[in-house]
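Q: For a teaching session next week I want to show students how multiple molecules come together into a single three-dimensional assembly. I've collected the sequence lines for a complex. Could you give me the predicted C-alpha cells for the whole thing so I can convert them for display?
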Amino acid sequence: MDTTSPESAMLPPAMEGKIEDTVDLNLQYPSVSERYWTKYYFIPKERKKPGSSGEEKGSMNEGTGETEKGMENVMKEDDETEKMDVDSNHTEEKDDRLCLPREGTAEHPKVTYSSLDSSGHVCVMVHTNKLCLVTLSDRHPALAPGQEITQVSYEVGKFNRLDNQVSGKGKRGAQMMGPQSPVCIITCADGSRHLVLAGVHGKLVEVNERLLANPKLLRERPDAEGYLAVILPPIKNGDGPLRRLITAEQYQEMCS
Amino acid sequence: MLGRDVHAFLEEAGCCSRCTLIFLGTRSDDLYGDLSKIYEATETAVSRLNGQSDEVQNSRQNSGTSETTAGSKCSDGIKEKCLSSDELVTEKSDTNENSTKKQKFAVCVACIGVLQWGCSEEAIKQLSESIKDGGHDADGFSLSLSLPASISLRIHRLWTLLLQAHPQFPVKGREDHIGTVKDVWKNVVGPQLGAATGKAFIHGTYHDFVLNVTCTYVNDLEDCKIMDELCQTMFATRQKQHKKYANSVYSKQAIDAAFKKLSDSEVLKVCPSPPSTPSEAVTFASLQCQQAPMYMAGRYNKYSRDLPQTPWFVEGERKLGSSVQELICDILDQTVCAEDLKFSSSGREDVDVRCLGNGRPFVVEFINPQRTKLSGDKISSLQRTINNSTKLIRVRDLQIVEKKDLKNLKEGEEEKTKAYCALCIAAKGYDNSALEALSKMPQLVIQQKTPLRVLHRRPLATRARTILSMKAHPVDQHFFKLHLTTQAGTYIKEFVHSDLGRTVPNLGEIMGCEVDIIALDVENVALDWPPKCGD
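A: Of course. Below is the structure for the complete assembly, covering every listed component.
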C-alpha cells in the first residue's frame, strides 16, 4: 500500500528523532534568495535619443532579430497582443517609456534626457511560484565599486509607484507593468541618475518602501532585502512573461 | 347529488381511482390502502358529499355492499369503475394499445400513471433493484419523489373544470393536492419496497438514506406548451433566455406561480376541456440512492520532510509521491467505499515540516458512503492498518464523529496556539548571550506581510501576530534550535529569515546577526479534539 519511495528522498525519512538529526548541518546551506529564486537578466535596449551615449548592447532575443525601427512595433505588440488579466480599474500604460518631465519641476533639479540612464541591467528573480522580483544586476552602474546611492524614488514621470493599491488574490487595481515600464529612479552621489525598467509583464504587487528611508540597503543586499519591486505575471501565459529575459548562464557568457 | 356527480365527472375525465379519492377530499390513511380499501373510502367520500352521512355508517358496517340507500346504487357503480380503470392499467405495456379505447382503460389524466403503474410490481422491482445495487448498509430508507411539471398543470386544469361544473364543491383539497399525490405514492410503495429489500421504510423526511426517484413523462414539453397561451409574457421571456432556462422553461415552480396569478376563468378560456389522455405512463428517469455523509476524525503525526498533506500536482504531473491524505484515506475508503471524500485538518504544515507531539487533528468526510456501520474494533483495526502501512505518518484517536463536531477544526486552526522547534543557521556565528536573551523576552508582536512564497495566491496584507514565548539551545557554533509558541496563523520561517525584510521584527534583527532556518517541526497543536481514544 505504501506508494512512496522514502529511501529515494534526499533526506532520510526522519522518525521521532531530534531535529538536528533529521537534516544535514550544512554550512553552505543556500540563502533564501538562492533557495526560492532563479535569476534571469534583462538588458534594456539603447534608445536613440539626443545626447545619449552608450553602446548598442547585444541582441537579447534569439530569433526575433530586432532593429531600432522594429523595436517600436515590438513594443506595440507587447501592449496589445499579449493578453493579460486586465481589469477595468487598472491604469494602463500605453506609453510606458521614458515619460519624464522635460523641464525641471519644483522638487527635481533641471534634468534632460541625457542624464537619465535606463540602460542598466536588471536582474529579475523568479520564484518557484512564478512571482517576480525586480532587482539590480551586479553589473548595474549603481552597484559599481566606489559608487554610492543617495536616493531611490518611485515617482517615474506619469506614475507614482507608491500609489499602487492591490486587493484580493488577483491583485485587482494593480498598475500594469511591461518590460519597458519604469519602476524607480536611482540617484547616486556622483549625480548620475538611473531609471530601472521592469523587464517583465505583470501586475505591480508592491515596491520596496524600505529603500526610501534606507537607500544603502540597495547596495548592501541587492538580491535580497534590497529588491525594488514585486510583480505578479499573468497566470495563463506560461513562460510568456519571461520572453525578454535571458538566463544567468547566457548572461555570464555575454558579459565575460 | 354532489358526490355522485363529481365522481362521475372525474371518472369521465379519465382520473384513476386514487386520484379521484384525492379530489374528493380524503386525506386519511385510506388513501394508501389496497384497491378494496379505495373502493370503500370512495363510497364513503361520495356519500359524505351527497349529504347522507347516516346511511354511510350503515353501509360501511356491511363491508361496502350497502343495498338499501340511494347512495348504494352509486357505490356499486363506483366499485365497477374503480376496478376496471385500475386493474387494467397496472401493466405499462397495456396503455399504448388501450389509449384509443374508452378512458377507463387508459393512463390517468391527473397523475399520468404515478399512482397506477408507479405502484405496480414492475415499478417496485425497479426500485428495489436500485437500492440493492447501491450496496449501502443503511437499515432504513425514505423516499423522495420528483414529478414532471405537466402533472401540476393537469391537476390545476382539472380543478378549474371541476369547480366550474360544481361550484359548491369544497375547494380546500386543492392546496395540498400534489403533495398528497406524492404521499400516497410513497406510502403505497414504501412498505412493499421495505419487504423487498429488507430495509425499514421510514415515513416522512429522514435524511440519512434516501432513494431519490425522478419521474418523467415523455410528452411533458408538449403538455406544457399551453402555458405559453395561458401566461404569455412569463414563458415568452424564458424561451428566449436559453442559457438560464436550458432544460426547464416550464418548471413546477413556474407553473404554480403562473396559476397563482391566473384566475380560474382565464384558465377556462384557454382550456375549456379536460387534459388529454397521456400517451403513456411516467417512467423512472433516475433512481439515485443517497446516503448522508459520514465523518471520521483523528490526529496524525508526520515524520517525513518530503510529504505534502494533500496530493500535489504541477501542470498535470504529480510532484511528490503520495500525501498524508492518501496514506490515511486510501485505506479507510477501501472499507467505507464512498463516492467521494474530503480531507480537512486544523491548519496544515509544509511539505518539509514534521508534525510531532499529539499530532494534528483531521476529519475525513465520506460522501455517499456504502458502509457506515463500523464497530470500535473495526475502527481500531483500520488505524492499525494505516500505521503498519507506512513509517511516514502515524494516526491516533481515529473515531466516527458527527457533522456538528467539525467546527472544532476551524476553531483549532484560528484560535489555538502552536508550539514549534526551528533549527536555525547563523552562517557568521551568533552570540550565546543573544540566545539566552530570547527566553527572557516578553510576548512579542510582529508584523508579517503575506510571505512571498504564498503571495501569488493570497491577498497582500500585513498581519499582526504574537510570539508568546521562546527558548533556544545551541547545537554548535553555527547552529541552534529555537523552541517557540505562537498565535495561530504565524509564519515561523518568515519570522526567522525575515522574508527579505517583510516580517518585522524578525529573529535576525532581535539577535543582531544573520539567521536562516534549516528545518522546522510542529511540536504541538493545542486542540483537545477529537477526544483521546486511549490506545
